[in-house]
From TrEMBL:
UniProt organism field: Xylaria flabelliformis
Name of the protein described by the UniProt record: F-box domain-containing protein
Length: 203
């Protein structure tokens, strides 16, 4: 591969090619079921195959190795599917390790915010020491029940504790109370909040 035409273009162009190549599709999603202890201690790591391009030659591996592990998508479908065991849908290249993520996408609905999402974020926030970008892909649910305010507060505190965070992008239509609560929690930080009505990671 050393004489591949890929290496005749500037690195900046190759990086754009890599970015497109590493973008996720729903076919990449894997459903995992395990207890939180195993999930967080990596005794049973969440993993997916490395991109085939990455294993073609050492040079491409070196150029891709920082970006390939930097993004993950975690999907929450509904609380009834999480307990007592945890069923979690993840989209990732290679082994998911939260300490090397720069971008995390959480797909949630208002029912899952009653339990699994705050529990997940609270459990992994301390590990995400270089996370810069958080995307919350928000599915509006008319049948959602009243939230447990303690759960909501713990979710917001976990969000606030990610000190490396630079941007929060909210896609979809969260209830005004949730949007305002997140904005209020970020007052006094350097985190920029952006809200888009269109969702990115549609089911």
């Amino acid at each position: 591969m050393g004489d591949s035409i890929l290496f005749t273009v500037p690195l900046e162009i190759r990086q754009l090619i890599y970015e497109y190549y590493l973008s996720f599709e729903h076919s990449d999603t894997i459903c995992h079921e395990r207890q939180w202890e195993a999930f967080l201690k990596y005794s049973k790591p969440l993993s997916a195959p490395l991109p085939s391009l990455m294993v073609t030659c050492k040079r491409i591996y070196i150029e891709l190795r920082s970006d390939v592990h930097s993004t993950a998508v975690v999907q929450f479908i509904g609380p009834e599917r999480f307990w007592p065991g945890l069923h979690i849908h993840t989209t990732v290249h290679g082994i998911l390790r939260f300490e090397r993520l720069h971008h995390l996408v959480m797909q949630v609905n208002e029912e899952s915010l009653r339990g699994p999402v705050w529990f997940f974020l609270e459990a992994v926030a301390g590990k995400m020491c270089v996370l810069e970008h958080l995307t919350i892909d928000w599915e509006f649910t008319l049948r959602a029940e009243e939230h447990n305010e303690n759960h909501k507060r713990r979710f917001l505190q976990a969000l606030h504790s990610i000190t490396s965070l630079r941007t929060i992008r909210i896609n979809g239509c969260p209830r005004r109370s949730w949007r305002q609560a997140i904005e209020q929690e970020m007052i006094g930080t350097n985190v920029v909040i952006r809200i888009f009505r269109n969702r990115w990671w549609l089911p």
